[in-house]
């Protein structure tokens, strides 16, 4: 399943790149892209684990970029 | 500016004012008279710390958080180290104090960050405005009353009402009313389109004059407007080589500069090459230029802007990578029908035999062909201005691939090509015009022929000329037409090479052959009308589909989609692509050049921190402003 979310307050392009690198290494994430310009996070993960993976992605994002919210 | 940015700006202004006051106080020598020496140094240390903390406390906190997380190569961390390091120089009693630089590094860093945030927000907004084609509601008639509903809730087959001034919310067919539609937002075309009952309408157009009742044909998610928006939004995910280069570069640049800074601060003094303070300061200066932000922001921003600008012209580019490829196209291959010619046939000439009225030839042909759906028959009927009297027409027999024989007014009429004439033993003669020749024979006597040709688009010739101007080496035309017909069209349009008499399946092979003849680094673009040419569109380096208003297949298979059917848009797309690439490389060369220059100067102790701050935020600002030029397309 592939789904897009809006990212609030992602202010620095280099941070977005790093966030993407970090999120990609999370277990269960098949593909993830953090688009700094469109402020969009696109996550691809297996259907049955999607919610679980999304939760981990949200938690990791909060850790790396505390200012940045994922709007589901 | 949003609320957060306004607060940020106010904080920076307060810090800047205090900084200026402190600078003035320090320069006036007031501190020395008040606190003596070295008391004045400590006093100014404390005073400079005030604007420093006001402007930078958030950055310092973020840096602390990053240390806890174990990620030292973060911009906030490096800026904090550089500025705190400058303050810490006060510990070396024999060197000049550097508190002013420390505070300045943080202040200007904040100014730069705020500017970046603002500039990026602005370009996001202007691209969003450019793409502001999403309809907000659809008027659905229910029990005689109009209600506004979300377009996503309207099912295909519903009749909706579009008032003048409103945007067409869904693709559909006009069932009642006539109006002019403004398609500018979709196609870049300023001439409005006239629609009346039976005509298809595309979501995203603006209804200008009359009230329209439209029966929807697609759900919102599959409508033109939704597909365009999705396509443009996702375009930045397909990264260009230049972007990937920057991403890879950014990964190594910061660690490399940071490690060099450490080496510079520690190794020379250990080798006894000078004072610690001097080298530590040079190392700190390195840290200030260690962020690759100017590149990481400006390069994707340029592509984003280029794609946004192109879409304003009705050119949808499906990814930054295609924009990059488009800039290097030197061969453009056209599938003739639908790109250079409109794909509709027209009667271009009627050549009656001596003593025969041309209207008689046309009338006979139109009557004989009156039951056929063949495009040629349609064009003959379209050219005939008189009434077709069905009662006059007797038995009709169609001879596939050759023509028809029919009984009209008790005459035996033959209409068709050479083979039909030969088969019936009629005499006929050739024509000097190029095109499809339709011979007409009545009761065994040849009365003349009608010349039918595919209509060449108005701007086709100009399109080829502007492609050559834009540096395209060869324009190739593929067609199923006879060789002489194809060559006549090609000569008229200025096409360099023709492949005629191709069957649809030969087109892939033809493109493959042309591809293998390409020089290194040169690219081939294929232009098709999106009908039955998906394999070729995919095989070419850049597949361009045109006339895509409403054609799903074309939008799917192509890399670049032209919303209208003007071939002249191809050269425009190339110009946008080239401009974008030029700006991208300007930024890469400029930002890297300045940073490397500052690094070298800093290593030799020539560049100070003030210059390094410019190398960081100044360069980023200039690169962003330059990148924003990509959005402006006035070709």
Radius of gyration of chain B: 35 Å
Helix-strand topology string of chain A: EHEEHE
Question: Main β-sheet of chain A: number of strands, strand sense, barrel status?
Answer: 4 strands, antiparallel
Number of strands of chain B: 22
Q: Which protein chains are joined by the largest interface, and how many residues does each one contribute?
A: A-B, 20 and 26 residues
**Structure classification of chain B:** alpha+beta
Question: Largest sheet of chain A, order of strands side by side?
Answer: 2-3-1-4
Structural class of chain A comes to alpha+beta
User: Counting H and I runs of at least 4 residues, what is the number of helices of chain B?
Assistant: 21
Residue-averaged pLDDT of chain A: 84
Q: Could you say how many structural domains of chain A there are in total?
A: 1
Fill in the CATH topology of chain A.
Answer: Alpha-Beta Plaits
The coarse silhouette of chain A is: globular
Oligomer: heterodimer
- Give the helix proportion of chain A (percent range): 25-40%
Organism (chain B): Thermophilibacter provencensis
Protein name (chain B): Heavy metal translocating P-type ATPase
InterPro entries (chain B): ATPase_P-typ_cyto_dom_N, ATPase_P-typ_P_site, ATPase_P-typ_TM_dom_sf, ATPase_P-typ_transduc_dom_A_sf, ATPase_P-type_domA, Cation_Transport_ATPase_IB, HAD-like_sf, HAD_sf
Pfam families (chain B): E1-E2_ATPase (PF00122), Hydrolase (PF00702)
How is this structure best described in words?
Chain B: It is a multi-pass membrane protein. Chain B: It comes from Thermophilibacter provencensis. Chain B: Keywords: ATP-binding, Cell membrane, Membrane, Metal-binding, Nucleotide-binding, Translocase, Transmembrane, Transmembrane helix. Chain B: This is Heavy metal translocating P-type ATPase. Chain B: The chain crosses the membrane at residues 12-35, 41-61, 73-94, 100-121, 256-277, 283-304, 584-604, 610-628. Chain A: Residues 1-69 form the HMA domain. The complex is a heterodimer of chains A (72) and B (635). Chain A is built from 2 helices and 4 strands; from the N terminus they run βαββαβ. Chain A is α+β, with helices and mostly antiparallel strands and 72 residues long. Chain A has a single domain, classed as Alpha-Beta Plaits. Chain A has a 4-stranded antiparallel beta sheet with strand order 2-3-1-4. In chain A, strand 2 (29-35) and strand 3 (40-45) form a beta hairpin. The two termini of chain A are 15 Å apart. By secondary structure, chain B is an alpha+beta fold. Chain B has 3 domains: 3-128 and 237-303 and 579-631, no CATH class; 315-340 and 457-563, HAD superfamily/HAD-like (Rossmann fold, 3-Layer(aba) Sandwich); 342-456, Calcium-transporting ATPase, cytoplasmic domain N, CATH 3.40.1110. In chain B, the strands form 4 sheets. In chain B, strands 10-22-21-20-11-18-19 form a 7-stranded mixed beta sheet, with helices on both faces. In chain B, strands 2-1-3-9-4-7 form a 6-stranded antiparallel beta sheet, with no helix packed on it. A 6-stranded antiparallel beta sheet of chain B has the order 12-17-16-15-14-13. Chain B is elongated and about 125 Å long. The model of chain B has no long low-confidence stretch (mean pLDDT 86). Chain A binds chain B through residues 9, 11-15, 17-18, 21, 33, 35-40, 42, 63-64, 66, and chain B through 4, 65, 69, 71, 74-75, 113, 116-117, 120, 123-124, 233, 236-237, 247, 250-251, 291-293, 296-297, 300-301, 304.
């Amino acid at each position: 399943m592939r789904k897009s979310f809006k990212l609030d307050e992602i202010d620095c392009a280099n941070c977005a790149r790093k966030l993407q690198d970090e999120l990609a290494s999370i277990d269960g994430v098949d593909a993830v892209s953090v688009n700094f310009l469109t402020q969009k996070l696109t996550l691809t993960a297996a259907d049955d684990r999607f919610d679980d993976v999304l939760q981990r992605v949200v938690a990791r994002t909060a850790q790396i970029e505390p200012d940045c919210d994922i709007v589901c | 500016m949003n609320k957060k940015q306004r607060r940020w700006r106010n904080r920076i202004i307060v810090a800047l004012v205090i900084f200026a006051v402190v600078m003035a106080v320090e320069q006036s020598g007031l501190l020395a008279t008040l606190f003596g020496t070295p008391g004045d140094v400590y006093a100014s240390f404390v005073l400079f710390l005030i604007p420093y903390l006001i402007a930078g406390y958030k950055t310092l906190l973020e840096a602390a958080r990053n240390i806890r997380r174990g990620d030292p190569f973060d911009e906030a961390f490096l800026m904090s180290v550089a500025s705190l390091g400058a303050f810490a120089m006060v510990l070396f009693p024999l060197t000049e104090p550097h508190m002013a630089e420390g505070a300045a590094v943080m202040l200007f860093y904040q100014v730069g960050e705020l500017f970046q945030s603002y500039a990026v927000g602005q370009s996001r907004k202007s691209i969003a405005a450019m793409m502001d084609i999403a309809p907000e509601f659809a008027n659905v008639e229910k029990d005689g009353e109009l209600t506004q509903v979300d377009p996503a809730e309207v099912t295909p087959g519903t009749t909706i009402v579009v008032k003048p001034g409103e945007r067409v919310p869904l693709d559909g067919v006009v069932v009642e009313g006539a109006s002019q539609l403004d398609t500018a937002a979709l196609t870049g075309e300023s001439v409005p389109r006239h629609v009346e009952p039976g005509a298809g309408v595309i979501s995203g157009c603006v209804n200008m004059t009359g009230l329209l009742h439209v029966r929807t044909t697609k759900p919102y998610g599959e409508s033109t407007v939704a597909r365009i928006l999705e396509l443009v939004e996702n375009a930045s995910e397909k990264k260009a080589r230049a972007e990937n280069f920057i991403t890879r570069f950014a990964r190594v640049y910061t660690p490399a500069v940071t490690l060099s800074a450490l080496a510079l601060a520690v190794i020379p003094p250990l080798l006894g090459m000078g004072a610690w303070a001097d080298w530590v300061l040079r190392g700190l200066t390195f840290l200030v230029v260690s962020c690759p932000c100017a590149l990481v922001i400006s390069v994707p921003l340029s592509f984003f802007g280029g794609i946004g600008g192109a879409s304003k012209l009705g050119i949808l580019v499906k990814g930054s990578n295609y924009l990059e490829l488009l800039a290097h196209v030197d061969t453009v291959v056209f599938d003739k029908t639908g790109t250079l010619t409109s794909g509709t046939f027209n009667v271009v000439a009627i050549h009656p035999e001596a003593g025969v009225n041309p209207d008689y030839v046309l009338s006979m042909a139109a009557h004989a062909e009156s039951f056929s759906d063949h495009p040629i028959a349609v064009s003959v009927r379209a050219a005939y201005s008189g009434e077709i009297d069905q009662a006059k027409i007797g038995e009709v027999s169609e001879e596939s691939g050759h023509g028809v024989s029919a009984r009209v007014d008790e005459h035996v009429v033959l209409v068709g090509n050479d083979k039909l004439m030969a088969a019936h033993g009629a005499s006929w003669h050739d024509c000097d015009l190029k095109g499809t020749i339709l011979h007409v024979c009545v009761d065994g006597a040849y009365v003349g022929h009608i010349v039918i040709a595919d209509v060449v688009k108005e701007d086709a010739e100009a399109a080829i000329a502007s492609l050559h101007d834009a540096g395209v080496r060869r324009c190739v035309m593929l067609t199923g037409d006879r060789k002489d017909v194809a060559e006549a069209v090609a000569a008229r349009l200025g096409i360099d090479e023709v492949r005629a008499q191709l069957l649809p399946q030969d087109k892939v092979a033809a493109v493959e052959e042309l591809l293998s003849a390409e020089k290194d680094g040169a690219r081939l673009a294929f232009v098709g009308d999106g009908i039955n040419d998906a394999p070729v569109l995919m095989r070419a380096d850049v597949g361009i589909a045109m006339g895509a208003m409403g054609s799903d297949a074309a939008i799917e298979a192509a890399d670049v989609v032209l919303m209208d059917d003007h071939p002249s848009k191809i050269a425009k797309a190339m110009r946008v692509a080239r401009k974008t690439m030029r700006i991208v490389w300007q930024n890469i060369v400029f930002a890297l050049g300045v940073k490397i220059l500052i690094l070298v100067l800093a290593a030799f102790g020539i560049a100070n921190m003030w210059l390094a701050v410019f190398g960081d935020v100044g360069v980023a600002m200039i690169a962003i402003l330059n990148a924003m030029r990509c959005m402006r397309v006035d070709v």
